[in-house]
Amino acid sequence: MKKDRNKNKYIVRQPIRNTQKQTIGYEILYYGENQAFGGLLSDKEFAAADTVYNFLIQNTDKVLKGSFYFMTFTATLLLKKTPDLFDRSELVIQIDDSVIIHPEALAAVQEYASKGYRIAVNEFQFLPRYLGLLDTIDYLKLNFASMSEKKLRNVIEIAHSLKKLCIAINIDTEELYAEAEKLGVDAMEGTCVAEKLATKTHSSGYMQSNFFRLIIAMSREEPEIGEVEEMISVDATLSYALLRLANSCYFARRHRATTVRQAIMTVGLNQLRQWVYLLSANNAENEMDKDSEEFLKLSLLRGTFCSKLMKYASGMPISSSDAYLMGMFSTLNYLIDAPMEEILAEIPVPEEVKAALLRREGKAGQLFELALCYERADWNGVAAATEALGIPANLLTGTYFACVDDVNRIWAQVTNPRPDDT
Question: Which of 315, 377, 396 is nearest to 14 (CA)?
């Protein structure tokens, strides 16, 4: 019997970046958001809205907290007064055509704007029903994949003359990215934007505060191995560098180190202390750029997500720690500016992890593909991967935002030294 994929509701966040490649906020995407919610609502559409509403009530602190978020509100969610769940300083209320043609929902939008909430319109067009909203709108979201260059140029010029900000959406190719830059949009989102990095490498730009804590920990007469392991494990480049060191000819052993803890034990505390001091000398005059910071966060989120999904997947040929490294190392080709093939050739990760990262092959490849599809809001890909892995689809959103919560907590810890570390 064929499964009804629409019964599963997913929520994910995606970065929105300005033309300086700084992340200005995140968009919350949820499954079924493109359904028409205007007019008379069917039972199915009410159920979809109720699913999102109930999730948000239970997970407000995890979904919208401490960052700037864009979220599309359907007519139903607006009439339920869902935006009241969130601080107006952290939320942009996004609407689309189904809200604009719904008189009661549109009145709710205008009321929220009067309260200080910022408003964005998805796939804005210069049509009469949109023009009446111009005094209310703060952001115009433009679909570069479906509008001509001439029309885009006209919209952007007029919008800027009215002091409105333009965000290009669906920027999924290098060509669209270049066009958006050329036409002078204020920000962009899409798969290409999420993966776009400056050419500057991260080879010496470790997480500054975390690295400082590592130096302090290694300065103690008897460093706590678990503490050192935790500090290294949250930085993809440090983990990679340590695994390379532990498996170099200098430390040649019969059994190769495949985890951070094994690498620490192989190198030994004295050599590890020297290695950390050498890195600190090399790192002293370098600051981590914002792009590298975002990719380190992304690597940590992927690693945590893949690791937690392992307990639900069936027949996996890798361990939970392997799954964590798979997610962590998935951004290394951007962070240290080298081909993934060369990076993986330097460290003894399982062949299944290499096949997953390079070619999306095998069960591990399906797990990695699931993580990628989820963060890209590719719901068909999510459905296919969960079915192949035997992972209950209804667990994904809760697991994902638990990971977001974990990453935010870890990031706060490693980027803000404790008072006793100074």
Answer: 377
The predicted-structure confidence for 103-137, as pLDDT tens digits, reads as follows 999 999 999 999 999 999 998 887 888 888 888 99
Total of domains in the chain = 3
Residue 29, SS3? strand
In a domain, 181, yes or no: yes
Domain limits at 56? 5-195
DSSP string, 160-178: HHTT-EEEEE---SHHHHH
Q: Is the dihedral of CA 203, 328, 188, 289 positive or negative?
A: negative
> Of 139, 140, 158, 162, nearest to 150 (Cα)?
158
Residue pair 36/98 in contact (Cβ under 8 Å)? The answer is yes
CA 100 – CA 81 distance, rounded (Å): 16
Q: How far apart are CA 317 and CA 352, in angstroms?
A: 7
Q: What is the DSSP letter of 229?
A: H
- The per-residue pLDDT for range 253-288, each reduced to its tens digit, is 667 888 899 988 888 887 887 777 666 545 544 455
Together in a domain, 57 and 139: yes
Residue 89 C-beta-side C-alpha neighbours within 13 Å: 2
Tell me the CA distances in angstroms from 274 to 65, 152, 191, 269, 278, one per residue in order: 40, 56, 40, 9, 6
Rg (CA), the chain: 23
**Is residue 383 in some structural domain?**
yes
Q: Which residues are within 8 A (CB) of 188 and not within 5 positions of it... i.e. 6 or more apart?
A: 16, 17, 18, 19, 167, 168, 169, 171, 177, 180
C-beta of residue 295 within 8 angstroms of C-beta of residue 237: no
User: What is the CATH classification number for the domain harbouring 72?
Assistant: 3.20.20.450
Does the CA dihedral 29-34-38-42 come out positive or negative? Answer: negative
- The model's pTM is 0.71
Residue 190 burial (10 A CB sphere; 0-12, 13-18, 19+): buried
Q: Both tokens of residue 383?
A: 């459905």
